[in-house]
Amino acid sequence: MSNKPYKGFEPKWLLTPAPAGSYRSIFRWGDPEFFKYPKESLYKMMKETFQMTDEDFRDYTDDIGFDQVALPNHPSRIAPEHLEALKRIVGEEFVTTGDYERLSVAYGCTGYDLLRLRHKQIDSLPDVVVYPDTTEQVEELVLYASQHKLPLYVYGGGSSVTRGVEPTKGGISLDMRKRFNKILSFNEVDQTITVQAGLSGPMLEEALQDAPHRFGAKRQYTCGHFPQSFEYSSVGGWVVTRGAGQNSTYYGTIADIVLSQKYATPIGRIVTPHYPREATGPDLNQIMMGSEGTFGVLTEVTLKVFRWQPENRKRFSYMFRDWETAMAAAREMMQCECGYSSVFRLSDPEETHLMLKLYNVDETPLAPLLDKLGYKDMERCMFLGFTDGEKGFSQNVARNIHRIARRFGAMPMTGYVTRSWEKGRFNDPYLRDTLMDFSVITDTLECSVNWSNMAQVHRDVRAVCHALPNTIVTTHMSHCYPQGANLYFIFITRMNDAAEFKRYHTTILDAIQRSGAAISHHHGIGKMFAPWLEGYIGEKEYGVFRALKDYFDPDYTMNPGGTIGLDLKPEEKKRLNERKDYR
Amino acid sequence: MSNKPYKGFEPKWLLTPAPAGSYRSIFRWGDPEFFKYPKESLYKMMKETFQMTDEDFRDYTDDIGFDQVALPNHPSRIAPEHLEALKRIVGEEFVTTGDYERLSVAYGCTGYDLLRLRHKQIDSLPDVVVYPDTTEQVEELVLYASQHKLPLYVYGGGSSVTRGVEPTKGGISLDMRKRFNKILSFNEVDQTITVQAGLSGPMLEEALQDAPHRFGAKRQYTCGHFPQSFEYSSVGGWVVTRGAGQNSTYYGTIADIVLSQKYATPIGRIVTPHYPREATGPDLNQIMMGSEGTFGVLTEVTLKVFRWQPENRKRFSYMFRDWETAMAAAREMMQCECGYSSVFRLSDPEETHLMLKLYNVDETPLAPLLDKLGYKDMERCMFLGFTDGEKGFSQNVARNIHRIARRFGAMPMTGYVTRSWEKGRFNDPYLRDTLMDFSVITDTLECSVNWSNMAQVHRDVRAVCHALPNTIVTTHMSHCYPQGANLYFIFITRMNDAAEFKRYHTTILDAIQRSGAAISHHHGIGKMFAPWLEGYIGEKEYGVFRALKDYFDPDYTMNPGGTIGLDLKPEEKKRLNERKDYR
């Protein structure tokens, strides 16, 4: 995680930018000039856990993908008349069948995607990539695709971890990054901004923090939505998957932040209401969110915005004695009605163990002190975060968190821990790329639970993970509510085969589904989790999704190939848990 | 509003409880022993505004409904085999075709309903009233009704102001008040309660405040949902209409408070998820809420509950110079991120004028002081409320409200004003009954707006109201958000004819629809506002509701006769406003 040289042996971390046009430039995360590799303590831990030696890090396991993308065996199959029609809609130069452009929108960022790309395993490719500019163009494209039964996919930020963007049926992929990323209006009276769905997180946040110059606003604003994928995520992706940012405990998930949406569907334009609350039948905003491109293409979004007041932020971190006590304290913080903190992150013992290594805390005088005071390794739990909002509000939240943490026997840690977390919060994906060069793969799965089933879900899922070979699994909650929270599992293993990884991943998803948790708190369903969805939601309840699909997209041309399970065959579905009454 | 005798002439206010079995016992609000009549100042104002004299109050305009209900011309048409089947499901003694029982579930509480009941105008009656006990019974009843194409209606609290409960097609009405009102479970860890949908507001709140005794809980709780109709409203009614209580600015509307729902639909049981947030496709909770009985019958609801901490409550009231300044201050309070107050109610100049009379403020030294300081009658605006939540949170909200009110030039008023409002908050419907005996009718309409269109909606709707003869129209906002608020119009007029009143009411609804506001913030749509719904939502967007209806209730037996417009003919619909892009 630093550039400090290792003592003795130096692994062959790749520090050369991927060449333009290369495979690596597609599967590698983000900024080509930025690199991240493990600190020595993590390196040591990996070697121990995965029975690896320095030898394994002398060279890359495989080809690292520096060669140019060339797909002679995967030509575009689009008919010339369709190609011409698409060009008429968006302009000649904004339609391409180039190999690189097609591959660059073919996969997302789940471990299975990255392994397939590294091995040049081409399971899916669009036949043509289109770069729309306006809402009207997207509407024409959707109508054209629907009329000619061409599969239509959308690529926003590309950071899907659910195979949400994968064009499994070929056809058209709309790459929104190039042009469909404009801010359409800003309304300071209502504190809202309306944008095209392809706008990236950083472009949105930059504009909002620069609102006095950009929009002549009286104040600076923030979008309040910062997923780990922030830097390479799009507003549209946030919305259609029901994403949540790391500050969601205060700002809400995207489902709370969206005010209004506009979709291009096969039956035409759909505009949802733009009032904060209303009693006018089922909530259209909440019907369209979560559709993941299967009802149509999200074109425009109006988001609520928030005042940017970092001067009021209070950072905190505490160490709890054990997971049970820490969960009880977190619950009290969420239920006492003192207001919610913005980042609110509680790590289980295994994650705490890893974090103390990552943040070098185990090399400071704090480590023996913790031991001495009875905060034992592999029992103790790290809790950290910071507050946002108006000054008095922010202070009151921090004061109550301190009060409750102390009441539950926690030890205040330094602000150093929180700052260390902040430094890494958006760049862990870089570390992932570095490790994969040596067959060490990191991935995440997450779910939503009530407080009353949290201990059981945590226990059950971890038990399954630890029965798997060579697995580190760390868990935290990071999106919290009075009635429950998410549980986020990060697992690290030594594996290099895509099919093997898929089986491994499936085993953990099965465990989540069996535990009774909601199978996703904020990653969404995509094509990867789709087999579990009907089993989780219930058969008649799932029928609602199909009724909506039949209404919007009767020919099933929108994000086809299993997305949220709508065109899965019965035998492709899993039903591992009977829905029980909540009590 | 008091029992203080009038100076001189004493109008013939009715102070005798309505006899059991009488018409009046049906159309009159609430507790038979409780009466409310106008204070002399309001009485005087009514006479002036409506060109009435004491003579008009010497005797009732009409029959006051003390006679026994008897409907010889409206026999039940239910077939004997259906009657037998219903009795087999719920038990012999819980099925009735009695005239009184049928009429008592035939109407809600909108002005049009009360005028029709006073004039014994029987437009709608169920053929049979059934009193279910369990979820399984309701499920059997729904299946039976659906299989035999019998219209099925539900009567919860009966306080619908949208003709939501009216059995316009006859058939079966489920009267939930008698038995379908049980608490099923309480979960203190998750802070939730699960109840049958017929439970009344006061029964729920009493149980929660008594949680230590009732459930062995560690604390007292509150439901946080207090609509004006609280005392005669049901949890199910709150949920299916998307209601909001007077404390919604802090606690949220019912759409925020519901965690999970169970419905008996013609296609079977539907259970919605019970996690605080998830990313598993469209939000089933928000799809079922707002269906108003047209997808099926709501049987069970799990609500979030809140800690009961009245000791932390801070009351406040302020007088602003004018509506524009007051709106700007309210917006700042909602956007500054200091936390939200629980009751947050801002009256426009006409309502402020009336309130000062009602609360006797115009007889105190405060009245000349206000004038002297330039807070002019018919310009000044009253703002009042109170905070809830943890002590520091509550204090911080009150402190910021004070700071902002002062910054916008408001004068602090006494806690007396807030307490006066609190005294009357649930019992204004009693006053309404008293006035109707003399042909003075009060009713309300409400809508949802963004801050940026609030001034225009307020101006447009009031202009239309004031063009109507003999109309007092007062307006407030009482459910506020960073992006907007509701506008609530109370109108008082002299009128006694149901058809005339319906035309009058329609004129105002037309004005709301033309203004571009959402046509309901929390009353719902029912059968009364249904003609406007598709025009407001948009044709393709409204098609979503029909797709859902077709899925759940393909034979249209659930709350038929226009509810949320699903079985209206095209010519019965109004389209008064083209949907514009929100910017």
What is the end-to-end distance of chain A?
45 Å
What can be said about the biggest beta sheet of chain A? 8 strands, antiparallel
Largest interface: A-B, 101 and 101 residues
Q: Structural class, from helix and strand content of chain A?
A: alpha+beta
Principal-axes shape call of chain A: globular
Radius of gyration of CA atoms of chain A, rounded to a whole number = 24 Å
How large is the count of helical segments of chain A?
22
The overall strand count of chain A is: 19
Kindly report the oligomeric state of this protein: homodimer
Mean pLDDT of chain A: 95
Percent in strands of chain A? 15-25%
Unreliable parts of chain A? none
What is the helical fraction of chain A, as a range of percent?
A: 25-40%
Topology:
Two copies of one chain form a homodimer.
Chain A lengths: L22 H5 L12 H10 L30 H11 L4 E2 L2 H5 L7 H8 L9 E3 L4 H13 L4 E4 L16 E4 L7 E5 L4 E5 L4 H9 L1 H5 L5 E2 L12 H7 L6 H4 L2 H4 E8 L2 E4 L12 H5 L8 E8 L1 E2 L7 E6 L2 H13 L7 E5 L1 H10 L7 H7 L8 E6 L4 H17 L3 E2 L2 H10 L3 H9 L3 E11 H17 L3 E7 L2 E2 L2 E11 L3 H18 L14 H8 L1 H14 L31
Parallel strand pairs in A: 2-4, 3-4
Antiparallel strand pairs in A: 1-2, 5-6, 6-10, 7-11, 8-9, 8-10, 12-14, 12-15, 13-14, 13-17, 16-19, 17-19, 18-19
Helix pairs in contact in A: 3-6, 5-20, 13-16, 19-20, 21-22
